[in-house]
Amino acid sequence: MPARFSRSEAEKFFGSIAGVFLFAASIKIFITPVKLYNGGIVGMGQIIQAVLTDILGFRLPFDFTGAASFLINIPLMLLAYRSMGRGFLLRTVICVACQSMFLSFIPAPSQPVIGDTLTACLIGGIISGFGVGLTLKCGGSGGGLDVLGVYFTKKKQNFSVGRLTILVNTFVYGICAILFDLETVVYSLIFTGIQALSIDRVHSQNINVEVMIFTKTEDGALQKAIIHELERGVTYWQGYGGYTDQPGRILCVVVSKYEMPHLKKIVARHDPKAFFMIKEGLQVSDNFVKRL
Q1: Mean pLDDT of successive 10-residue segments in the chain (292 residues)?
Q2: Residue 55 in 3-state DSSP?
Q3: pLDDT per residue as tens digits for the range 70-114
Q4: Nearest residue to 35 via CA among 176, 164, 213, 158
Q5: Is residue 113 part of a domain?
Q6: Residue 266's beta-bridge partner residues?
Q7: CA quadruple 198, 121, 124, 24: dihedral positive or negative?
Q8: Which residues, including other chains, have CB under 8 Å from residue 130's CB and lie 6 or more apart?
């Protein structure tokens, strides 16, 4: 195995663990003390913890949120293995195990670190969203809706992860409204919305960009490298510089924003003098492959 590849994989591994740590720490430090709830599987774990301790009066040796979310994730991890392979399962198991451990053993302050609930939502949402986005960007997964989102996106062409999130969170916050109060639900929704915005700023795999590459290379090596390394289709045509009247080649390719650094390296390797035109936020359908 090349040393550079090993270093890259190590960086992704530690990046994904750092992401789940940031997520868990933000939940325990900023969100739990003000009695708010995360959406998704972790939110279910928080509700189970609240029911056991606050309603049923059990005394637990540690916060049961992490353990509960891990148990709920077990069938989802089996789904990951059956549909997305051993590599994705291994990364998911490691991340979910670390996340569950962090949620169980990172102590929550007895008094809120930030007394204002809205400010706690803002800071907790930004940090936890950054953590989730970092984990996804490094090829990991915190389980739960991440697994279901990847699974259904690969299975269904027009599937929206946002719809799945709304459906599951409607259930979670509906339970919160029954067990607790409406104010808790409203602030929890604000936190979840801020978290989602933060995730999208870090995790750029679902943002498509159209790239126009202007190059003077004529041997076809550049488009072949893009097709081979990125496995993306390339359309090209002949053009001429208006000032020099010299011939050149114009390449058009659609990639995810996450793939842009790799694309730039390929172009720099074949033609350092080439330049780009980038259009972000395209709506792409049919034969465009989603890379998750």
Answers
A1: 59 89 94 87 86 81 82 80 70 87 89 91 93 83 73 62 70 86 89 84 71 86 88 87 85 83 89 85 64 54
A2: helix
A3: 888 888 777 766 666 677 778 888 888 998 899 888 998 988 999
A4: 176
A5: yes
A6: none
A7: negative
A8: 19, 22, 198, 199, 201, 202
Instruction: For 265-274, write each residue's pLDDT tens digit.
Output: 999 998 888 8
Burial class of 165 by CB neighbour count within 10 A (0 to 12, 13 to 18, 19+): middle
Q: Of 170, 202, 234, which marks where a domain is finished?
A: 202
pLDDT at 277 (0 to 100): 87
Domain of 234, in residue numbers: 208-280
Type of residue found at 58: F
Q: How many C-alpha atoms does 218 have within 13 Å on its Cβ side?
A: 6
Counted domains in the chain: 2
**Which positions ≥6 away from 167 have C-beta within 8 Å?**
none
Q: Same structural domain for residues 252 and 112?
A: no
Beta bridge partners of 132: none
13 and 129 together in one domain: yes
pLDDT at 123: 95
Q: Please give the pLDDT value at position 102.
A: 92
Which domain-ending residue is among 152, 176, 202?
202
Residues contacting residue 134 through CB under 8 Å, at least 6 positions apart: 15, 16, 18, 19, 22, 202
Whether 65 and 24 have beta carbons less than 8 Å apart is answered as no
Query: How many angstroms separate the CA atoms of 88 and 96, rounded?
Result: 12
Residue in 31, 52, 40 with CA at minimum distance from that of residue 188: 31
Q: Are residues 173 and 215 in the same domain?
A: no
Write down the pLDDT at residue 33.
Answer: 92
Phi, psi angles (nearest 5°) of residue 236:
-140, 155
Radius of gyration for the chain, computed over Cα atoms and rounded to the nearest angstrom: 23
- The packing angle between helices 145-155 and 161-179, to 10°, is 150
Give the per-residue pLDDT at 182.
87
Q: Extract the tokens encoding 153.
A: 């996106």
